């Protein structure tokens, strides 16, 4: 119901990558809420943007989003809302392949290299929320 930053930090400190932290009073789409457990079970990280905002408020984790095109910013904004690539494709009337290319481009422009210990999608969203 509210953000408990100490709990959120402990939750995210694990190496599993499959975690979720949603705020029940901020769930706008019931379908997103109902699919969240399946997404976490599939290894995804599902976070409410407010949780991320409070965790990283004032930490200086900004990245230069100026390199992103308007369409890339739109895609990143949808990622920040917790949308999957297929949901982004549906919402933007793009093919799944096009969305994947945009996501890959976003990672490159934000200099987020593949890493075993980090989720590039979450890191990109954190930069978006901190901008």
UniProtKB/TrEMBL annotation:
InterPro entries: Sig_transdc_resp-reg_C-effctor, Tscrpt_reg_LuxR_C, WalR-like. SMART domains: HTH_LUXR. Gene3D superfamilies: 3.40.50.2300. One of its GO terms (biological process) is regulation of DNA-templated transcription. Residues 61-131 form the HTH luxR-type domain. It comes from the Bacteria. One of its GO terms (molecular function) is DNA binding. Keywords: DNA-binding, Transcription, Transcription regulation. This is DNA-binding response regulator. It comes from Amycolatopsis panacis. The lineage of its organism: Bacteria, Bacillati, Actinomycetota, Actinomycetes, Pseudonocardiales.
């Amino acid at each position: 119901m509210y953000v408990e930053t100490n709990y959120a930090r402990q939750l995210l400190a694990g190496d599993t990558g499959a975690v979720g932290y949603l705020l029940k009073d901020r769930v706008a789409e019931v379908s997103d809420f109902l699919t969240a457990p399946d997404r976490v079970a599939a290894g995804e990280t599902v976070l409410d943007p407010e949780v991320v905002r409070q965790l990283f408020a004032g930490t200086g984790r900004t990245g230069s989003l100026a390199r992103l095109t308007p369409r890339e910013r739109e895609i990143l904004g949808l990622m920040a809302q917790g949308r999957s690539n297929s949901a982004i494709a549906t919402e933007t009337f793009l093919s799944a392949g096009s969305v994947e290319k945009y996501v890959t481009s976003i990672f490159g422009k934000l200099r987020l290299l593949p890493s075993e210990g980090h989720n590039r999608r979450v890191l990109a969203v954190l930069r978006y929320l901190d901008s």
